[in-house]
Amino acid sequence: MQPPIGSSNHDSELNRPLVSSAETADDLKIEHEVNPSLISLNQAESAELLRCIGELSNTGMPLDEGLEAFAEEVSQRKLKQAFRQLAKEVRAGGNPLVDHDLSFVRLPKYHQSILVAGIQSHRLGETLYELLEEENWRNEYWRDLWAALSYPLLLATVTLLVVDFLNVFIMPMIQTQFLSIYEDFDLDLSFDPEIFRAPTISWVSFFLLGIVGLLLIPAFLTPAQTALLRRSVPLVGKIFWWYESLDLIIKLRLLVAQNIPTPTALRLLEDAVSSRRYAELVPIWAEKMEQGKHLGEVWQVSPDIPSSILPLVRWGESNNSLSEALESAERLLKERLALRRELIRKIGPPVITILVLAALFWAAIRLVVLVSPLIDLIQALT
Question: Coiled coil located at which positions (predicted)?
Answer without folding.
Answer: none
